[in-house]
Amino acid sequence: MGLSLGFIGDNIINNAQVFGYSIYVRNGYELDMPKLAHEFVHVLQIERSSLEKVVFQHFSDLAKYGYADAPLEVEAFKANIKYTSSTG
């Protein structure tokens, strides 16, 4: 599943990942303000629920909706937009 979603392997598309209060960033990836805001939304999502519940929901949503339309990502992408427009 990790290979098909791009989390591991040669075609990694996941540049940052949240686990609890830790944000892991792929070497060479620039985590600017909009991208950091996106990851902070994922921290908030975990705070509202639990890491276990968010991971289960996220993988279920990825299978059902795909990455761009997964509800947790849709919420986080709003932070990208907010902080891109406020810094530009």
Bulk shape: globular
Biggest sheet overview: 2 strands, antiparallel
Q: Total number of β-strand segments?
A: 2
Helix fraction, binned, reads: 55-70%
| Total count of helical runs of at least 4 residues | 4
Indicate the low-confidence ranges by residue numbers: none
Could you tell me how far the N terminus lies from the C terminus, measured between alpha carbons in angstroms? 37 Å
* Radius of gyration using CA atoms only: 13 Å
Compressed to H and E, one letter per element, the order equals HEEHHH
Report the structural category: mainly alpha
Mean pLDDT: 86
Strand arrangement in the largest pleated sheet = 1-2
Q: Strand share of the residues?
A: 5-15%
Describe this structure in words.
This protein has helices at 2-5, 33-48, 51-65, 71-87, and strands at residues 16-19, 22-25. With 88 residues, it is mainly alpha-helical. A hairpin with a 2-residue loop joins strand 1 and strand 2 (22-25). Helix 2 (33-48) runs antiparallel to helix 4 (71-87). The longest helix is centred in the C-terminal third of the chain and has 17 residues, at 71-87.
